[in-house]
Design goal:
Distance between the termini: 37 Å
Protein name: DUF2795 domain-containing protein
Organism: Prevotella histicola F0411
Pfam family, one: DUF2795
Order of helices and strands: HEHHEH
Low-confidence stretches: none
Structural class: mainly alpha
């Protein structure tokens, strides 16, 4: 399983919190790339509910990771 920023961004608008099956369903309905579906299927599922993409990919950058000051624009 590998995630890139582009792949993970396909799940930004997913209906969080969500289970693995709900995320797979969302990815299929939204036309996400095949790699997103493969990555979701590789998650070891113990009936967990994921609150955000960070629960799936802990290295997902947040807005705080960028040196962008929205107040300036």
């Amino acid at each position: 399983m590998y995630w890139t920023l582009e792949l993970a961004s396909k799940l930004e608008d997913a209906p969080w919190p969500a289970t693995k099956d709900e995320l797979i369903d969302y990815a299929m309905r939204s036309g996400a790339p095949l790699e997103v579906l493969e990555n979701l299927q590789e998650i070891e599922d113990e009936g967990e509910v994921y609150d955000s993409i960070e629960d799936i990919w802990p290295d997902y950058p947040s807005k705080d990771d960028f040196l962008w000051n929205e107040d300036e624009y």
